[in-house]
Amino acid sequence: xxxxxxxxxxxxxxxxxxxxxxxxxxxxxxxxxxxxxxxxxxxxxxxxxxxxxxxxxxxxxxxxxxxxxxxxxxxxxxxxxxxxxxxxxxxxxxxxxxxxxxxxxxxxxxxxxxxxxxxxxxxxxxxxxxxxxxxxxxxxxxxxxxxxxxxxxxxxxxxxxxxxxxxxxxxxxxxxxxxxxxxxxxxxxxxxxxxxxxxxxxxxxxxxxxxxxxxxxxxxxxxxxxxxxxxxxxxxxxxxxxxxxxxxxxxxxxxxxxxxxxxxxxxxxxxxxxxxxxxxxxxxxxxxxxxxxxxxxxxxxxxxxxxxxxxxxxxxxx
Length: 318
Known about the structure:
Largest sheet: 8 strands, antiparallel
Strand content: 15-25%
Order of helices and strands: EEEHEEHEEEHEEEEEEHEEHEE
Shape: globular
Structural class: alpha+beta
Distance between the termini: 35 Å
C-alpha cells in the first residue's frame, strides 16, 4: 500500500522571474488576476513561506457554498453522514485544487491553547503565554486566512466548530489509505469531521466495525459485510458525525484508470480537545521529513531547498 502524503510545506517557489512589460490588463506578480490589487499574505515563524490569501475568484465562489443541499445517510446502525455533491461550486473547484496543491500544509492547535493576534500561543482560559515546553514535540501553526475562510463557512453549514485543518495529497491512484477510524480520545466522544475531496475522483469505502453476538440490542456485524461506497468527485464533502467514528471504519482504496493519476487533495476539519491531539497530528502528518513543493513544469512534488538570495532580492520566506 502506498502511503498517503501530506502537503506539509508544499509551497510555491519564489525565485525571481525575468521582468517584462505588462499591459493594464495583465496581472503583475503577486497581484490578483481579478482585482489587479496586491495579494495579501500571511506570515508566521512556523511557515516556510508567506501564504497567500484566496484570489478574488475563489473568495467570491465560496459565497455560494454549499453548491448542493447535503443528503443525510443514516439508514444503517450507528451511521450519521451528511453528503454534499458537491459542496464547492464547480466554477472554482479546479482553481481551488491548484491553489491548495501549492500553498498549504497542516495547521491548528487544540482547545487548551489559541493564537493571539500577533501569532503567539496563549492559554485559552487565562490568555497568558503558554509555557515554552507545552508542545515539546511540535510547533503549532495558526490556520492561515485562506483555509480559515473555508473553516468558518464549513462551521456554519455543519453546526460544528473546528480547530484543526489537515491536508493530505494522493499523487496517483496507487496512493491509498487502509481502513481506519478517527476515534482518538482527544477528539471527544462523538466528533464531527468534515472531509473535502478535490481533484481526481476516488472511492470512499465505509464498513461497520465487527460487533460480537453477545452485545444486546445490536444485530451482529461481521467483517464480511459489503462496504458502503461513496464515489467522491472534486468539490464533494462528507460530514462524519455522531457515533460514526466509534463504530465505522473508512478507507480510500487504490484506483486505476480515469483521472486517478491527476492527483487528489483531501482536506479535513476537526477539533482536538487536549494538547495530545496537537502533538499527535503534527507527529503523524508532519514528522521530521524533508520539505516538498509542487513543480508545475514536472507535474509532481519535488524536494525543496531554500534558495539563497542576494541582498538586492526580496526574500518572502520566513
